[in-house]
Amino acid sequence: MCFVCLGNICRSPTAEAVFEHLVADAGLAHEIEVESAGTGDWHVGEGADPRAVGAAESRGYRLDGQAQCFSAEDFDRFDLIVAMDASNRGDLVALAPGSDAAEKVVLLRDFDPDGRGDVPDPYFGDHGFDQVLDLIESSCRGLLAHIRPSAAE
């Protein structure tokens, strides 16, 4: 599974860390592989935004990966591609090498029991990193509940 946002320095690495934590707690770490990527390449090789790192660390998560850019070839690597917002989803669907690949793309908040829509981008300060982390945690719990039966087979 790959979580995808725009630059892979705020939302998607946060979702990766949260989901890895939930998967490990569920005893499924050996069955579910988790990565994150961005649709843009501006931050490739960089670590996560320090504000995202701080918010995550305050809740016990580690954001220690480096940003990477999602490519068309990645559709072969992942069974599920989880976009943070509709714009990211649109970019991923446009990049997909066919309709089967495009069907792998979902929105993270589709799994949030508290609501649907986008995970807002906190990079420019319109939404707080803690608020975004709240949405990601809720959505990741819903996502794990959705896939857990197939992951346990």
Straight-line distance between termini: 17 Å
Radius of gyration: 14 Å
CATH architecture: 3-Layer(aba) Sandwich
- Main β-sheet description: 4 strands, parallel
Mean pLDDT: 93
Report the top-level CATH class. Alpha Beta
User: What is the tally of beta strands?
Assistant: 4
Poorly predicted residue ranges: none
Total individual domains = 1
Identify the overall geometry: globular
Widest sheet: strand ordering: 2-1-3-4
The helix content is: 40-55%
* Beta-strand percent range: 5-15%
Given the helix and strand composition, which structural class is it?
alpha/beta
- Which fold name fills CATH's third level, the topology? Rossmann fold
| Secondary structure tally, helices | 6
- What is the H/E string? EHEHHEHHEH
What is the CATH superfamily label? Response regulator
Question: Can you walk through the features of this model?
Answer:
It contains 6 helices and 4 strands. With 153 residues, it is of the alpha/beta class. The protein has a single domain, classed as Response regulator (Rossmann fold, 3-Layer(aba) Sandwich), CATH 3.40.50.2300. It has a 4-stranded parallel beta sheet. Helix 1 links the parallel strand 1 and strand 2. Helix 1 packs across helix 6. It is globular and about 40 Å long.
In short:
By secondary structure, the chain is an alpha/beta fold. The chain has a single domain, classed as 3-Layer(aba) Sandwich (Rossmann fold). 42% of the residues lie in helices and 9% in strands.
